[in-house]
Structures are given as C-alpha cells and as structure tokens.
Amino acid sequence: MDDRYGGERTVSDLGASLVLWFDGSVRYGPDNAAPQRAAIGYVIEEAKPLVEGSQELSTFVSNTHVELRALLAGVQAVAELREHRRVSGVHVCGDAEAVIDTVDPARETTVDDGISRQRTERIHEMLAPVPQTTYRCVSRHRNERAHELAT
Questions:
Q1: What is the pLDDT of residues 74-113, one digit of tens each?
Q2: Of the candidates 124, 104, 93, which has an alpha carbon nearest to the alpha carbon of residue 19?
C-alpha cells in the first residue's frame, strides 16, 4: 500500500509500520520580533490516523527546541501505542530539516546545546525497541495535518 510518506507500508509478523508526522510552531507579535506563543502537533498513522496530539507551550527557547518537543511528544505517543500493538517500524517525518539532521543517527550532526542533546537521547531511547526507524524531511504541504495541530 502506497502512502503520503512516499514508500510502502506493510503489516508483517513483527507488527505495524507507523508514520509519525510532527511539527512545532512559534507565533510572533505584531513587531514580528518577539515570540508570543508556541505549540506542537503530531499525527501517528498506520493505514489511517491512529493518534493525533497538540499542546500549547508555556515556555520555549527556539523554533528548533519547539520542533524537538513536538517530535518527543509524538515518540512518547508511539511508545504508548507499543504497549498495545506490535510495531515493526516508525517512519519519522517532519518539515524541520535541522531537527531531522539532529535526530537521525545516520547523519553526522553535532548537538551543541544540552536541551537538544537530552531530547535527542530520549527520542533514541524510546525508539530503540522498534526494529526499524527512518527519518525524512518533507515539505510543509506533506506535513499539513501536524502543522494544523501545531498552529
């Protein structure tokens, strides 16, 4: 079965292959300089959406940190799903290339700040039990539902 991710998803003896879409959004004030609010959104799909989540954030540092929080929230939701179903793969898709570069172990990226490093380590720990995890940067158009949830 083809999907928006651009690949083929199958259910094997190992379990379902999931797609995790994530996005973070920071809104700025009228001067377009001072950030006013931020929120995150994520969607987990198999053949159809299984879980959607969004949350307004009371504190945030940067766009990258907000995106990492969105991914972490999505990964936590995947971990909760894994308590009830077998999962053979998670295909992580987001429109923040810096975040995808940071979390994808196949890419050689150095994480300089402690918050991003801690979140990245936590994401890797929570996805470690999944036999296959892939990371892909996609256009905002393809990440539309997660973006809607974040805004």
A1: 999 999 999 999 999 999 999 999 999 999 998 887 777 8
A2: 93
Report the residue count for the chain: 151
Provide the whole-model pTM. 0.86
Q: d(Cα 24, Cα 150) in Å, to the nearest integer?
A: 6
Structure tokens, 74: 């999505």
136 close to 89: Cβ distance less than 8 angstroms: no
* Alpha carbon 146 to its chain's center: 9
Nearest to 102 by CA among 91, 93, 110, 113: 110
CA triple 111-139-25, angle to 5 deg: 60
Q: What is the CA radius of gyration of the chain?
A: 15
**Alpha-helix residue ranges (DSSP H) falling in the chain:** 63-82, 97-103, 114-127, 144-150
Joined tokens for residue 134: 């892939």
